[in-house]
């Protein structure tokens, strides 16, 4: 059994449910249960600092303790994301505990992922992931940017998640994904998961994944993948969606 089959994917549950069954289904706000959210490394990092000892309740719901801080523009953030007001307050409290300055820098991301993936080297992946969250490229992530990104990854639509994934792959942000960029992301994930992953990963595995993805995605064979090619191919090809389950435990 592949280890990443157990956890929430960067692209949600796309590999498990045929897209045709998702179309036309009204989005329902899921419960912010500890069981569901604590599988996301970034949420686990934030909420672990605020969870009272022995707070796991019988129904698995997140215990929301009294919030002394709340972000400016809470109503606006609630409109921008798919988190409730209480969820945003809880996330903000943890964020302020971990980052009193109100900013997360790249070194913090590296520490988070080193903690959750001690068996490998998470440095490069943390760098790429940080840049995907750092929308304006100023080297720091505000709480607002952080929760907007988390909302997309945890509760976004298929289209929103795929656009976010494209942004992650598009390392230099020129609007195209090259084979080299995709390979760099894939290698960083394999490096982070470590050599002790089961099944044992061969050195050439990332390159094989990239070659397979590119053959399908680069429809006009010009050596780059556009956002249109990426979205169209991913949404039509269940094998690609299933392969992207590799991301399941790396957010």
From TrEMBL:
It is found in: Cell membrane. GO terms for biological process: regulation of potassium ion transmembrane transport. GO terms for molecular function: calcium ion binding; DNA-binding transcription repressor activity, RNA polymerase II-specific; potassium channel activity; potassium channel regulator activity; RNA polymerase II cis-regulatory region sequence-specific DNA binding. SUPFAM superfamilies: EF-hand. Pfam families: EF-hand_7, EF-hand_8. Residues 121-156, 157-192, 205-240 form the EF-hand domain. GO terms for cellular component: nucleus; voltage-gated potassium channel complex. The keyword Acyltransferase does not apply. Keywords: Calcium, Cell membrane, Ion channel, Ion transport, Membrane, Metal-binding, Potassium, Potassium channel, Potassium transport, Repeat, Transport, Voltage-gated channel. PANTHER family: CALCIUM BINDING PROTEINS (PTHR23055), CALSENILIN (PTHR23055:SF165). Belongs to the recoverin family. This is EF-hand domain-containing protein. It comes from Macaca fascicularis.
């Amino acid at each position: 059994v592949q280890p990443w089959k157990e956890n929430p994917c960067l692209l949600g549950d796309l590999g498990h449910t045929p897209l045709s069954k998702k179309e036309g289904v009204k989005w329902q706000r899921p419960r912010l249960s500890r069981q569901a959210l604590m599988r996301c490394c970034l949420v686990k990092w934030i909420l672990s600092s605020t969870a009272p000892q022995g707070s796991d309740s019988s129904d698995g719901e997140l215990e929301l303790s009294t919030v002394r801080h709340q972000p400016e523009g809470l109503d606006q953030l609630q409109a921008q994301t798919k988190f409730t007001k209480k969820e945003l307050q809880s996330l903000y409290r943890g964020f302020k505990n971990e980052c009193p300055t109100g900013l997360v820098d790249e070194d913090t991301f590296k520490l988070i992922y080193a903690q959750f993936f001690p068996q490998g080297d998470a440095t490069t992946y943390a760098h790429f992931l940080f840049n995907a969250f750092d929308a304006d490229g100023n080297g720091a992530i505000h709480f607002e940017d952080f929760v907007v990104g988390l909302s997309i990854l945890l509760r976004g639509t298929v289209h929103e998640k795929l656009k976010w994934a494209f942004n992650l792959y598009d390392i230099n942000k020129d609007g195209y994904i090259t084979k080299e960029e995709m390979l760099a992301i894939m290698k960083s994930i394999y490096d982070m998961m470590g050599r002790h992953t089961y099944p044992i990963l061969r050195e050439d595995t990332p390159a094989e994944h990239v070659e397979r993805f590119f053959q399908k995605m680069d429809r006009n064979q010009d050596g780059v993948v556009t956002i249109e090619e990426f979205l169209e191919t991913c949404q039509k090809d269940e094998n690609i969606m299933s392969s992207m389950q590799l991301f399941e435990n790396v957010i």
